[in-house]
Amino acid sequence: METIQLPYGHGSLDLHVEEEQLEAVVRAQMGSLEPDPNEIEIVQHALQHPIGTPRLSELARGKDRIVLVTSDHTRAVPSRITLPLQLAEIRRGNPDADITILIATGLHRMTTEEEQRHMFGDALVDNEHIVCNNAFEPSQFVDLGTLPSGAHFKVNRLATTCDLLICEGFIEPHFFAGFSGGRKSILPGICAEETVKENHSYRAIADPHALTGVLVGNPIHVDMVAAARRVGVAHILNVALNERKEVIGAWAGELEEAHAAGVAFVRQWSQCPPVTGDIVVTTNGGYPLDQNLYQSPKAVATAEACAGEDGVIIMCCSCLDGMGGSHFARLIQMGTPDEIDAYLSGIPSTETIPEQWCPQIYARILRKHPMVLVSELDPKTVRRCNMIPAATPDEALAIARQLKGDDARVVVIPDGVSVLAVAPER
After folding, report:
1. Are the C-beta atoms of residues 311 and 317 closer than 8 Å to each other?
2. pLDDT for position 423
3. Residue 426 pLDDT more than 60?
4. What residue ranges in 163-254 does DSSP mark as E strands?
5. Residue 205: per-residue pLDDT
């Protein structure tokens, strides 16, 4: 019997699988990499050797108003490390700079002060000017025309009135933007509701290039890059993380060049050929990304790549913060997967409902794959989401075996978000 630890909330759950029925445990090599020499020195080296731009200290000279865009409470960006180093680098070149830290919430709820203190540390919260983007407050945004897709581009005015705009984030495979990081700090990060909805419309999500690991020809990525270019992002700092959320790589500098260098690293260390199983077990990598069901399709899309035509998917996602949004909660419970997809496909891009992209992806997957969910959600709610509730991974596996047979082959992907499960030529 094999015992496999699955990240779940702030801890883990054990899954027990008979050795003869375990097809594979799929892990990104990146997950086991160690910080070398240490996290701080990795970030410092990136800041000292930017790609395609001068150092941040040089860019900051003579710039009175500087905006630094960072991620919100749903992301594992190690801002306790990265923000102080960037702030020191800015002030090295311009001690008197007026710096605003802008939290890129996209369409998520506002980040609380308690969460900010957890993310940034008390000293930074007490001494720096921090603002949360609120996509639903029109007065925060300015209209900058349209993006290549024709989508309306409305962005937080702080990004357009500053003298220097810089961003931080982290890079991992993303289920429809190809990879996270880089340009995503701007779109969806600090854009108005209207812009985010059009970027995440049914048509955009359904595009055959809007897939994990795909950037070339991906219309969502193209608009994101155009948005970041439009507001003049001058410098980014992006990191890669191992399974313990430690920094194992960092890239600073020009928007696309630095992001491309990070993407190449992440692709190299996260890409794994798909291994097909009758039952595929995965997670969202634990906290913070498994706080709600809304975020869970990221890992489920990885499991989909390994589940063949009709394999059962088991998702372990704590959902300690519930469903993740009222629109998502309503749409994912509105009917069968076919009914959900039919309803969403009829919505024009300009009338996209916030959060509809996750029910759309779930509908696509649930039409082919039964899904068992291990979570803290009420079982009745889980069933209304067209999923089967289970209290533990072992109970979920027993349910899956009832559907696929006692001799079903099991593939386990302990962190489905970190794995790029695609054929090598992709």
Report:
1. no
2. 58
3. no
4. 164-170, 173-174, 178-179, 233-241, 247-253
5. 95
Q: Classify residue 426: in a domain, yes or no.
A: no
CATH code: domain of residue 357: 3.90.226.30
Residue 32 lies in a domain: no
pLDDT of 267 strictly over 50: yes
Please determine, for residue 338, whether its predicted confidence score (pLDDT) is greater than 50: yes
> Are 254 and 295 contained in the same domain?
no
At 393, list the tokens. Answer: 């991974």
**Residue for token digits 């799929």?**
26
Domain count, the chain: 2
Question: Which residues are marked as active site?
Answer: 108, 174
What pLDDT was estimated at residue 425? 43
Mapped onto helix, strand or coil, the DSSP state of residue 194 is helix
Asked if residues 289 and 316 have their Cβ atoms less than 8 Å apart, the reply is no
Last residue of a domain, which of 269, 286, 304? Answer: 269
Q: Does residue 288 register a pLDDT over 90?
A: no
DSSP character at residue 392: S
Question: Which of the 8 DSSP states describes residue 191?
Answer: B
Domain identity same for 256 and 291: no
Instruction: Let me know whether 310 and 210 are in one domain.
Output: no
Choose the final residue of a domain: 269, 300, 332: 269
Residues 227 and 225: their CA atoms lie apart, in Å, by 5
Please name the residue that has the structure tokens 């007065």: 139
SS3 51: strand
**Which residue range is the domain that position 56 belongs to?**
39-269
What average pLDDT does this structure show over 332-353? 96
Q: Which long-range contacts (CB under 8 A, 24 or more apart) does 362-367 make?
A: 362/297, 362/300, 362/332, 362/337, 362/386, 363/337, 363/338, 364/337, 365/297, 365/300, 365/301, 365/304, 365/313, 366/337, 367/337, 367/338, 367/341
